[in-house]
Amino acid sequence: MNIHYPNGRKFMSPLSTSQTVKARKDPTYSNRGMTLEEDLNETNDYYLLNNIAVIHKKPTPVQIVEVNYPKRSAAVIKEAYFKQASTTDYNGVYKGKYIDFEAKETKNTTSFPLQNFHDHQIQHMRKVIQQGGICFVILRFSSTEEVFLLEAEQLLSYWERMIEGGRKSITKEEVLSTAHLISLGFRPRIDYIKIIDYLYHL
Amino acid sequence: MNIHYPNGRKFMSPLSTSQTVKARKDPTYSNRGMTLEEDLNETNDYYLLNNIAVIHKKPTPVQIVEVNYPKRSAAVIKEAYFKQASTTDYNGVYKGKYIDFEAKETKNTTSFPLQNFHDHQIQHMRKVIQQGGICFVILRFSSTEEVFLLEAEQLLSYWERMIEGGRKSITKEEVLSTAHLISLGFRPRIDYIKIIDYLYHL
Fold first, then answer.
1. CATH topology of domain A16-59+85-200
2. What is the CATH number of domain B30-58+85-200?
3. I want to staple B65 with a disulfide (CB 3.0 to 4.6 A). Which of A116, B79, B120, B154 is the partner?
4. Which residue of A has its CA nearest to B131?
5. B79 neighbors A67 (Cβ within 8 angstroms)
6. In angstroms, what is the C-alpha Rg of chain B?
7. Contact B131 A22 (CB under 8 A)
8. DSSP per residue over B132-173, as a string?
9. Chain A residue closest in CA terms to B76
10. Is A85:A121 a contact under the CB 8 Å cutoff?
C-alpha cells in the first residue's frame, strides 16, 4: 500500500530511501557483493593466521580534497571522492608466488555479465600474467551461492570475444566447463588456495 | 614582521596556515617523503610501461563514515578518517616473484630512526618473508639524497635489537655496510629492481 502526504507526494519509508542505506547498494561504494567480500576477508584472515598465505584486499581508492585538523583530535576528511581502481582488489603472496585476483558477484542465474569488469582491470590482469603472476577472478552466483575460480587467461578470451562483437557475458555452461567450483566451508569459507595448489602444483 | 588584527590576534598568511598546506606536512596524510613517493611512482610507471615489473602503491586506507549521493553527480564522501595501514605501501610482481616494500625518508644525517616503521608493518614483513616473498625497505636520507635498499631480514634484526633495549635507529655506518645504495637516474629515477636482480639472481 502506498501512503501519500497531503501535498500529493508519495511517502517513502526512511529505511528504503535514506542515504546510508542507498550507499550500501551503490556499486561505486564497493559494497556490491558485500557477503562475497566478507567471506574472502575471513578466508584471507584464516590464511594469514595459519601461515598459509599473505593476501590482503586493497583499500578503496579515494581522492581526498579537503582535510580538517581539529586541535587535539584526529584529522577529519571533509571532502573526498571515490576513484576507479587501476588494479584488481586482492593481491599477495603464496609460496613465494605472486597472487592477484578480483571478486565479483551476479544475481543472474544463466550467465555472468562481463560488465562486472573494467577495462583497466583487464589490462592489469594481462600485465600480471605477462610478469608470471598467478591471476584469476572469483565469481559468485548469488542465487545459488556457487563460487567459482576462473583463471584470468580464460576470462581474457571471453573478453576478447566480446570486443570482437560477441556476447557480453559468460554463459553458465561456459563457467561450469572452464571455471573451477570452490567448495564452501566453515573456516576458511572460500578455500581458493586449494584450487591454486591443484592448478599450479604448488 | 608580525601583523596584528585590531582584535589582537596575529595575522597569519593563508599560505602558511591553510589546512591544505598543513595537510601536506602532516605525516598521517602520508605525504612525508612526497618526493620519494613521487620518484617511486614514476619508477613503477616506467617498470609497468616497459613490461619490467607490475608494482603499485596501495591506496591510503580510509574509514568512510558519511557519504552523500547528490542527484546526477558523483558520490561525495563528507566524513572519513585516516586508518593505519596493516601492510606495507608497495607490492606487486617481478618475474613471477612477489615483491613487497615500504619507503621512508629521514632528515637525519647520522642515523635512520626506526620509529618510521610501525609494529604491524614489521609483522607484515615477517609474514611475507615466511611465505617466500621478496621484502625490503627503501630508505632515503633527504639531506644527501642518498637512497638505499635494505632487505627486510636486516631491518628485522635492527628492530629486534631495539625491542631488546638497544638503539632506536640504524646508524649511517650500519646503513652503508648492510644496505645497498641505489644509483639515481633520469628514467627510472630509483632503479631498485637492479638491486633485486643482483640480490636474488633473477
1. Trna Endonuclease; Chain: A, domain 1 (3.40.1350)
2. 3.40.1350.10
3. B79
4. A95
5. no
6. 20
7. no
8. T-EEEEEEEETTTTEEEEEEHHHHHHHHHHHHTT--SEEEHH
9. A81
10. yes
Say yes or no for a CB contact (<8 Å) between B132 and A96.
Answer: yes
Q: Which residues of B touch A79 (CB under 8 A)?
A: 76-78
- The predicted-structure confidence for B111-162, as pLDDT tens digits, reads as follows 999 999 999 999 999 999 999 999 999 999 999 999 999 999 999 999 999 9
Rounded to the nearest 5 degrees, what angle is found at the Cα of A38, between the Cα atoms of A32 and A40? 105
Please judge whether B82 and A77 are an interchain contact, meaning their C-beta atoms are less than 8 angstroms apart. yes
- Write out chain B residues lying below 8 Å of A67, CB-based: 19-20, 23, 29
Instruction: Report residue A79 as a C-alpha cell.
Output: 571532502
pTM of the model: 0.82
> Which one of A73, A131, A196 makes the best mutation probe of the B interface by having the most chain B beta carbons within 10 Å?
A131
Residues B151 and B162: their CA atoms lie apart, in Å, by: 17
- 3 state SS of B182: coil
